Amino acid sequence: MTGSGRAGVGIIGAGNISTQYLTNLTTMPDVEVRFVADLDTDRAAAQAEAYGVPASGTVAELLADEEIEVVVNLTVPAVHVAVAQEILAAGKHTWSEKPFALERESGRELLAAAQSAGLRVATAPDTFLGAGIQSSLRLVAAGGIGPAHGALTLMQSPGPESWHPNPAFLFDVGAGPLFDIGPYYLTALVQFFGPVARVHAVTSKARAERVIGSGPLAGQSFPVNVPTHVSTLVEFESSQTAQSIFSFDSRLGRTQFEITGDDATLTVPDPNTFSGDLLITTGRDAVETRPSEGSAAGRGTGVVEMVRAIRAGVPERASGELAFHVLDVMQSIIEAGEAREPVDVTSTVEVPPPLDVDWDPTAATLT
To answer: Distance of alpha carbon 294 from its chain centroid, rounded?
Structure first.
């Protein structure tokens, strides 16, 4: 399906993250949110009413709406691919929350189905389209830190079970710190350095069970089915490298994202956000703070960017190919951790130049 002008959008999944998408997409003039669907139709109706969306109901009813061109898939990771395939079969483009898929085979099948149908399968995260990462990319591309040759990223926390009311799925296949948070960091790293060639890793799991700390299920235990600490060395096709830690086992919460160049080290804003200041360190006591420039509109930015790309007949930036490459990297990291030996990454992706500073998803560009 390829139309003209603004695009009709439907949302499948009325859970916690739908609030962020609805808050933003209902104010972005290049799209029109027409329908919210969920297995719990009462929950879908409540979200639709809260954000002025004209219709709600079942997935089948959403997919039958011929005015909906793009469907935002906010289901749980285990059914991302199945729901995306259903969306494609209805002749609609899909935007999915991350991860793109839980394993390579289903990811390849999804890409093939989209290509066969002439449709798009873009995927979160879209945080790298925000002012923080894009300002950093423009700075590095302009030689602001000299030739860049490496990165260090850290994401350490005690885990989400203390605050999330139902966190078990975050410790199951398709989640954990690598699959849940890793896409933000790895997607951003690929923007700086290009596709990954090889990974090394050590993985571990501190506890076999965890306990829910808040909400109606507080005190209940659940199994941990994935590594909760991942330490990896990433080699890029460009020969640049990055060292990264993704952990739910640290009482010290910490995020860090550094790009090291010959002339300076750039501290990049948190890649799980859309904005933030850039810190440029050229010496022990020489640190410049520079505000990021550009849009920080939030989740849903990638949906608008995809719609504009469809209208222009060009690839979207948060593409299925990019998401598959990041999935391939994450799966390779798990395999490297299990085997305790390097794993080559066989997929690749083309990375476009940074966005112009005046690119704005809240502007009306499609009439």
So the answer is: 19
**3-state DSSP helix/strand/coil percent for the chain, to nearest 5?**
35, 25, 40
* Whether residue 36 is found in the same domain as residue 89: yes
Instruction: Give the Cα-Cα-Cα angle 330, 80, 169 (nearest 5 degrees).
Output: 70
Residue 174 has what pLDDT? 82
Distance in angstroms (rounded) separating the CA atoms of residues 149 and 100: 28
At 3 the pLDDT is 67
- Please state the rounded mean pLDDT for residues 13-41: 96
Q: Which helix (H) or strand (E) holds 151?
A: strand 148-156
Q: Is 323 within the bounds of a domain?
A: no
Q: Quick one: which of 69, 67, 58, 65 has its CA closest to 12?
A: 58
Give the residue from 293, 287, 290, 173 showing the smallest Cα distance to 225.
173
State the pLDDT at residue 251.
Answer: 94
Which residues, including other chains, have CB under 8 Å from residue 175's CB and lie 6 or more apart?
Answer: 77, 169, 226
How far is 280 from 306, CA to CA, in rounded Å? 32
Residue 337 lies in a domain: no
Residue 84 shares a structural domain with residue 157: no
- Peptide bond just before 99 cis, omega within 30 deg: yes
In-domain check, residue 228: yes
From 270, 290, 310, the end of a domain falls on: 290
